[in-house]
Amino acid sequence: MKRTIVFLLCMIGIIITFGQNRTQNLLQEIKCTPPQFTGIDKAVPILVERKFPAIEQYLIDHITYPEEDLRYYNQGTEVVSFFITPVGNLTDIKIINSVSNGIDRAIIEALEATNGMWKPGYNDDKPAAMEKEISIIFKIGDFAGNNFTKMAKHLYADGSRALLKNSNPKKALRSFDNAMVYIPNDKALLVLRGLTRFELGNKEGALKDWTRVKTLGGIESQDYLDNFNSLKGYAELRNFIAN
Questions:
Q1: Beta-strand relationship, 90-97 and 76-84
Q2: Do 17 and 32 meet the contact criterion of CB atoms below 8 Å apart?
Q3: pLDDT digit string (tens) for 17-67?
Q4: Which phi and psi angles does 91 have, rounded to 5°?
Q5: Which domains does the chain possess?
Q6: Is 91 left (phi over 0), alpha (psi -120 to 50) or beta?
Q7: Tens digit of pLDDT for each residue in 135-169?
Q8: Which of these, 132, 83, 77, lies nearest to 104 by C-alpha position?
Q9: Measured between alpha carbons, how far apart are the two ends of the chain, in Å?
Q10: Cα–Cα distances in angstroms (integers) from residue 133 to residues 25, 83, 136, in the given order
Q11: What is the CA angle 194-101-91, rounded to 5?
Q12: SS3 per residue for the chain
């Protein structure tokens, strides 16, 4: 069954680095080296440079698509973050975007099995705790009609129409939530879902989406936000993105 399923995985990179000296007197730039998956238990003593296996390939080999999700055709993009400690342990796994509970469990189990198989990240020559994030695409088959971007764009258009033209934020939110299953790192989608949540009185949810936008690099054009100046959260969104 595993061979008939497409897994596409990509490392997004380091988001947060701990242990850096952030005082104003810091004159020399700190050299940051990200943690590295080794595939070897108790890998911390490995000091020599060598070619290590990719965490992507490890997950492909160790994740089995849950049978229930195959039966109900659950597919989409999971986003997972975790920390690598200074001694090479993996901890604090967090599901940022979920496709299903079954897929969540499959990812968590596979990642937990890599505990101790990591070479820690370094700030200069000192090991430091660092956070990594992985996006994992779960797709059943690979055919022309199974295009996540195309499906998400259709849902985005439906949600935009419901929110901006028909003043129906509840319907809009359903469309945006469904689109997020496919392309959770799309900043335009996160901005608009945040505004929809704000319209429905969920300010906490709105700020969560907008924080994610900033984590992904922010909005390239502030003029884009002016398209939503009629919505309740517009002023707060502009202020949040600017600061």
A1: antiparallel
A2: yes
A3: 223 333 333 334 667 888 888 877 765 554 445 566 788 788 888 999 999
A4: -150, 170
A5: 2-140 (3.30.2420.10), 148-242 (1.25.40.10)
A6: beta
A7: 999 999 876 568 999 999 999 999 999 999 999 99
A8: 77
A9: 48
A10: 31, 9, 10
A11: 85
A12: CHHHEEEEEEEEEEEEECCCCCCCCCCCCCCEECCEECCCCCCCCCCCCCCCCCHHHHHHHHCCCCHHHHHCCCCEEEEEEEEECCCCCEEEEEEEECCCHHHHHHHHHHHHCCCCCEECEEECCEEECEEEEEEEEEEECCCCCCCHHHHHHHHHHHHHHHHHHCCCHHHHHHHHHHHHHHCCCCHHHHHHHHHHHHHCCCHHHHHHHHHHHHHCCCCCCHHHHHHHCCCCCHHHHHHHHHC
Q: What does the block give as tokens for 226? A: 């002016």
Give me the torsion for CA of 26, 29, 30, 32, rounded to 10°: 150
Q: β-pairing, 126-128 with 121-123?
A: antiparallel
Residue with tokens 């195959």: 70
Measured between alpha carbons, how far is 138 from 103 in angstroms, rounded to an integer?
A: 9
Q: Which amino acid is at 132?
A: K
Residue with the two structure tokens 């000192």: 126
pTM: predicted TM-score of the whole model, two decimal places: 0.80
